[in-house]
Protein backbone atom coordinates (compact mmCIF):
# COMPACT_ATOMS: atom_id res chain seq x y z
CA UNK A 1 0.00 0.00 0.00
CA UNK A 2 3.06 2.27 0.19
CA UNK A 3 2.00 5.58 1.78
CA UNK A 4 -1.64 5.34 0.66
CA UNK A 5 -3.10 3.29 3.53
CA UNK A 6 -2.17 1.41 6.68
CA UNK A 7 0.50 2.15 9.26
CA UNK A 8 2.98 3.30 6.60
CA UNK A 9 0.95 6.52 6.23
CA UNK A 10 2.72 7.75 9.38
CA UNK A 11 6.19 7.37 7.85
CA UNK A 12 6.73 10.99 6.93
CA UNK A 13 10.42 11.40 6.23
CA UNK A 14 10.92 14.91 7.58
CA UNK A 15 9.31 13.93 10.88
CA UNK A 16 11.24 10.68 11.27
CA UNK A 17 14.68 12.07 10.49
CA UNK A 18 14.20 14.99 12.89
CA UNK A 19 13.43 12.67 15.80
CA UNK A 20 15.82 11.97 18.68
CA UNK A 21 16.61 8.48 17.35
CA UNK A 22 15.61 6.33 14.41
CA UNK A 23 16.76 2.91 13.24
CA UNK A 24 15.73 0.82 10.25
CA UNK A 25 16.43 -2.91 10.01
CA UNK A 26 15.75 -5.79 7.64
CA UNK A 27 15.80 -9.36 9.01
CA UNK A 28 15.86 -12.35 6.63
CA UNK A 29 15.90 -15.94 7.84
CA UNK A 30 15.13 -19.39 6.34
CA UNK A 31 12.19 -21.36 7.72
CA UNK A 32 11.72 -25.07 6.98
CA UNK A 33 8.39 -25.68 5.27
CA UNK A 34 8.59 -29.47 4.59
CA UNK A 35 10.89 -31.93 6.32
CA UNK A 36 11.33 -35.70 6.78
CA UNK A 37 9.48 -37.47 9.58
CA UNK A 38 10.22 -41.02 10.69
CA UNK A 39 8.91 -43.32 13.39
CA UNK A 40 10.97 -44.23 16.41
CA UNK A 41 10.20 -47.31 18.53
CA UNK A 42 12.06 -47.17 21.84
CA UNK A 43 11.76 -50.38 23.83
CA UNK A 44 12.92 -51.05 27.37
CA UNK A 45 12.05 -54.77 27.34
CA UNK A 46 8.58 -54.32 28.80
CA UNK A 47 6.88 -51.54 26.84
CA UNK A 48 7.30 -49.91 23.46
CA UNK A 49 6.34 -46.36 22.55
CA UNK A 50 5.74 -44.94 19.08
CA UNK A 51 6.90 -41.39 18.46
CA UNK A 52 7.45 -39.25 15.38
CA UNK A 53 10.86 -37.62 15.16
CA UNK A 54 11.67 -34.81 12.73
CA UNK A 55 14.71 -35.38 10.55
CA UNK A 56 17.40 -32.73 10.34
CA UNK A 57 17.15 -32.57 6.54
CA UNK A 58 14.72 -30.02 5.11
CA UNK A 59 12.92 -30.64 1.81
CA UNK A 60 11.55 -27.15 1.19
CA UNK A 61 12.55 -23.75 2.56
CA UNK A 62 10.64 -20.53 2.92
CA UNK A 63 12.26 -17.16 3.49
CA UNK A 64 10.87 -14.83 6.12
CA UNK A 65 11.39 -11.10 5.60
CA UNK A 66 10.83 -8.80 8.58
CA UNK A 67 11.30 -5.05 8.40
CA UNK A 68 11.36 -2.90 11.53
CA UNK A 69 11.47 0.83 12.14
CA UNK A 70 12.26 2.21 15.59
CA UNK A 71 11.73 5.90 16.28
CA UNK A 72 12.08 7.86 19.55
CA UNK A 73 10.33 11.20 19.98
CA UNK A 74 11.40 13.11 23.07
CA UNK A 75 8.85 15.88 23.61
CA UNK A 76 9.66 16.13 27.31
CA UNK A 77 13.24 17.34 26.89
CA UNK A 78 12.53 19.45 23.80
CA UNK A 79 11.29 22.33 25.96
CA UNK A 80 7.59 21.52 26.20
CA UNK A 81 7.98 19.73 29.55
CA UNK A 82 4.94 17.53 28.98
CA UNK A 83 4.57 13.79 28.57
CA UNK A 84 1.34 14.08 26.57
CA UNK A 85 1.54 12.96 22.96
CA UNK A 86 -0.60 12.01 19.98
CA UNK A 87 -0.07 10.46 16.57
CA UNK A 88 -0.65 13.80 14.86
CA UNK A 89 1.79 15.52 17.23
CA UNK A 90 4.53 13.04 16.35
CA UNK A 91 3.93 12.31 12.67
CA UNK A 92 1.78 15.27 11.50
CA UNK A 93 -0.62 12.63 10.19
CA UNK A 94 -3.38 10.33 11.41
CA UNK A 95 -4.53 6.85 10.40
CA UNK A 96 -7.49 6.66 8.04
CA UNK A 97 -7.78 2.94 7.23
CA UNK A 98 -5.88 -0.33 7.13
CA UNK A 99 -4.01 -1.67 4.15
CA UNK A 100 -6.36 -4.15 2.39
CA UNK A 101 -3.46 -6.59 1.89
CA UNK A 102 -2.60 -6.73 5.61
CA UNK A 103 -3.73 -9.72 7.68
CA UNK A 104 -2.94 -7.72 10.85
CA UNK A 105 -2.70 -3.99 11.47
CA UNK A 106 -2.57 -2.94 15.10
CA UNK A 107 -1.32 -0.07 17.25
CA UNK A 108 -0.16 -0.86 20.81
CA UNK A 109 0.05 1.86 23.47
CA UNK A 110 1.75 1.15 26.79
CA UNK A 111 -0.70 2.30 29.49
CA UNK A 112 0.97 0.54 32.43
CA UNK A 113 0.55 2.56 35.63
CA UNK A 114 3.70 4.12 37.01
CA UNK A 115 2.77 3.16 40.55
CA UNK A 116 0.23 0.82 42.12
CA UNK A 117 -2.00 3.53 43.57
CA UNK A 118 -4.14 4.26 40.52
CA UNK A 119 -3.74 4.76 36.82
CA UNK A 120 -2.55 8.22 35.88
CA UNK A 121 -2.82 7.73 32.12
CA UNK A 122 -5.79 7.99 29.81
CA UNK A 123 -5.88 7.26 26.12
CA UNK A 124 -8.44 8.39 23.58
CA UNK A 125 -10.32 7.20 21.69
CA UNK A 126 -11.17 4.06 23.70
CA UNK A 127 -9.12 1.06 22.48
CA UNK A 128 -10.70 -1.94 20.78
CA UNK A 129 -9.08 -4.25 23.37
CA UNK A 130 -6.52 -4.39 26.20
CA UNK A 131 -3.56 -6.76 26.18
CA UNK A 132 -1.36 -7.76 29.14
CA UNK A 133 2.12 -9.25 28.86
CA UNK A 134 5.20 -9.89 30.99
CA UNK A 135 8.12 -7.75 29.78
CA UNK A 136 11.48 -8.05 31.55
CA UNK A 137 9.82 -9.55 34.60
CA UNK A 138 7.18 -6.82 34.91
CA UNK A 139 3.51 -6.94 33.96
CA UNK A 140 2.71 -4.41 31.25
CA UNK A 141 -0.70 -3.30 30.00
CA UNK A 142 -1.26 -2.24 26.40
CA UNK A 143 -4.21 -0.52 24.75
CA UNK A 144 -4.72 -2.16 21.35
CA UNK A 145 -6.20 -0.40 18.33
CA UNK A 146 -7.09 -2.88 15.60
CA UNK A 147 -7.29 -1.08 12.25
CA UNK A 148 -9.13 -4.09 10.78
CA UNK A 149 -11.94 -3.74 13.32
CA UNK A 150 -15.08 -2.36 11.59
CA UNK A 151 -16.06 -0.34 14.67
CA UNK A 152 -12.81 1.62 14.86
CA UNK A 153 -13.59 4.11 12.07
CA UNK A 154 -17.35 4.24 12.59
CA UNK A 155 -17.34 7.32 14.83
CA UNK A 156 -14.48 9.12 13.09
CA UNK A 157 -12.89 9.00 9.67
CA UNK A 158 -9.38 9.06 11.12
CA UNK A 159 -7.62 7.61 14.13
CA UNK A 160 -5.52 10.00 16.21
CA UNK A 161 -4.42 8.12 19.31
CA UNK A 162 -3.77 10.53 22.19
CA UNK A 163 -2.25 9.92 25.60
CA UNK A 164 -2.76 12.38 28.43
CA UNK A 165 -1.87 12.48 32.09
CA UNK A 166 -4.82 12.94 34.42
CA UNK A 167 -2.85 15.25 36.70
CA UNK A 168 0.33 17.29 36.28
CA UNK A 169 3.51 15.34 36.90
CA UNK A 170 6.69 16.51 38.54
CA UNK A 171 8.86 17.61 35.62
CA UNK A 172 12.04 16.51 37.39
CA UNK A 173 10.80 12.97 38.03
CA UNK A 174 11.29 10.74 35.01
CA UNK A 175 10.92 6.94 35.23
CA UNK A 176 14.20 5.08 34.79
CA UNK A 177 13.87 2.04 32.49
CA UNK A 178 15.17 -1.32 33.63
CA UNK A 179 17.76 -1.39 30.86
CA UNK A 180 19.26 1.84 29.56
CA UNK A 181 22.53 2.87 27.99
CA UNK A 182 24.80 5.85 27.44
CA UNK A 183 27.47 6.22 24.79
CA UNK A 184 30.21 8.76 24.13
CA UNK A 185 33.23 9.10 21.84
CA UNK A 186 36.54 9.90 23.52
CA UNK A 187 40.15 10.48 22.59
CA UNK A 188 41.34 11.67 19.19
CA UNK A 189 42.90 10.21 16.08
CA UNK A 190 43.32 6.53 15.22
CA UNK A 191 45.64 5.84 18.16
CA UNK A 192 43.60 7.14 21.10
CA UNK A 193 40.07 7.41 19.63
CA UNK A 194 37.55 5.22 21.41
CA UNK A 195 33.84 4.50 21.79
CA UNK A 196 32.59 3.97 25.36
CA UNK A 197 29.15 2.48 25.96
CA UNK A 198 27.74 2.22 29.49
CA UNK A 199 24.84 -0.23 29.93
CA UNK A 200 22.83 -0.12 33.15
CA UNK A 201 20.55 -2.76 34.65
CA UNK A 202 18.41 -1.29 37.43
CA UNK A 203 16.48 -4.49 38.16
CA UNK A 204 16.95 -5.43 41.83
CA UNK A 205 17.92 -9.06 41.19
CA UNK A 206 17.47 -10.19 37.57
CA UNK A 207 20.17 -10.42 34.88
CA UNK A 208 19.36 -9.93 31.19
CA UNK A 209 21.15 -10.98 28.00
CA UNK A 210 22.09 -7.94 25.93
CA UNK A 211 22.66 -7.69 22.19
CA UNK A 212 24.63 -4.53 21.44
CA UNK A 213 24.46 -3.02 17.95
CA UNK A 214 27.00 -0.23 17.44
CA UNK A 215 26.96 2.38 14.68
CA UNK A 216 30.58 3.38 14.17
CA UNK A 217 31.15 7.01 13.11
CA UNK A 218 32.77 7.39 9.71
CA UNK A 219 35.77 9.22 11.18
CA UNK A 220 36.58 6.46 13.69
CA UNK A 221 38.28 3.23 12.64
CA UNK A 222 37.34 0.26 14.80
CA UNK A 223 39.86 -2.41 15.81
CA UNK A 224 38.03 -5.47 17.12
CA UNK A 225 41.09 -6.86 18.91
CA UNK A 226 41.01 -3.84 21.27
CA UNK A 227 37.46 -4.58 22.43
CA UNK A 228 37.16 -4.83 26.21
CA UNK A 229 34.01 -5.38 28.27
CA UNK A 230 34.12 -4.56 31.97
CA UNK A 231 31.36 -5.64 34.38
CA UNK A 232 31.63 -4.60 38.02
CA UNK A 233 35.35 -3.99 37.62
CA UNK A 234 36.08 -7.38 36.01
CA UNK A 235 36.54 -8.24 32.35
CA UNK A 236 33.51 -9.94 30.83
CA UNK A 237 34.02 -11.82 27.56
CA UNK A 238 31.03 -11.74 25.17
CA UNK A 239 29.50 -14.99 23.94
Automatic annotation (TrEMBL):
GO terms for cellular component: GPI-anchor transamidase complex. GO terms for biological process: attachment of GPI anchor to protein. Pfam families: Gpi16. It comes from the Eukaryota. This is PIGT transamidase. It comes from Emberiza fucata. The lineage of its organism: Eukaryota, Metazoa, Chordata, Craniata, Vertebrata.
